[in-house]
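Here is one chain, start to finish.
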Amino acid sequence: MTYSALTPVSEAVYAVLLDSTLQAATAGGWYEVLLQPPTFPCGWFELLSATEARGFGTGGLPLIELRTHTFSAYGSLSEAQAIDRLVIGLFRDVALTVSGYTFCGRIFYDRTVTLPDEVLNGVPVHEVVSFFRLYVEES
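Its structure:
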């Protein structure tokens, strides 16, 4: 397995999350490590370990799962859902520029899960999680 793709992919993902419309909607910002205590609404993204998807052959073709987590204060689920729709629009079918790698195809959007009743650092919140997949090829 290749893990070195995670850092440059993380940088490319963060660059997409700097979109001005998304930033305006998400007062608490977007992070790879959520600030403590967070300001709501806010977002967190995570990249799961790269799975080697090349099959037989040489080189590397990591498959990486991207998850975005949108949080809003309790009572404002529609706010988290609206922000998540912006996130999906930014990532669905987009080709990233990943330093040191060739991006393969587009980002695949898989699904969204709504977790409406949670407590984050003692604050009741809503959480909307979207799942994406992407492939990068070692250059």
